[in-house]
Design goal:
0% of the residues lie in helices and 36% in strands. By secondary structure, the chain is an all-beta fold.
């Protein structure tokens, strides 16, 4: 006697053969100059090519200006990296902040390492100037109201433009 068996598969494994891609990187602020303590937020747009969302940090560290940062999922394929300028970090010219992004999708597919920074970014001055010396001219004598005194300060690490420190005045 022959038996007949039938079964219905209610679920089956799905295959995600799509490697995620970092499609764009932008910086906020996109211009100006950052100093020690200032924050730069890099927005990363990612595409998976599959119907899942929620990429996570990849096997390599994500960095901004050479400093390891955390990847935060903002939803809808948008991710952020927050970098705070610290004393001694690398100084950078405008539009030259390096960004490395490493992501993988929920299936474990790793994106190619993204190694180019945003096309527009602020400069970074991560080294606070220090007064290294001072001199006064004239060096001695009796001065009267209306006489001129010149104070010269020696300062280390002026910004790349060679500009004098700002926000200082004598009255």
């Amino acid at each position: 006697e022959a038996a007949t068996y039938s079964s219905t598969v209610s679920s089956c494994a799905s295959i995600d053969a799509h490697r995620p891609v970092v499609s764009s990187v932008s910086a906020s602020p996109a211009s100006g100059a950052l100093k020690v303590g200032d924050t730069l937020v890099v927005t990363v747009m990612g595409e998976d090519g599959a119907e899942d969302e929620g990429m996570v940090a990849g096997s390599s560290a994500s960095t901004v200006n050479g400093v390891e940062v955390s990847l935060v999922d903002e939803g809808s394929g948008e991710y952020s990296l927050t970098y705070i300028v610290s004393e001694g970090d690398a100084d950078r010219a405008a539009d030259a902040v390096p960004v490395v992004v490493s992501v993988r999708d929920p299936a474990g597919n790793e994106a190619a390492l993204h190694t180019s920074g945003p096309s527009s970014s602020p400069s970074i001055d991560a080294n606070t100037p220090t007064i290294t010396g001072a001199s006064v001219s004239p060096e001695g004598g009796l001065l009267q109201v209306g006489d001129e005194v010149t104070i010269t300060l020696s300062v280390s690490d002026l910004d790349s433009s060679g500009a004098s420190p700002s926000g200082s005045s004598l009255a």
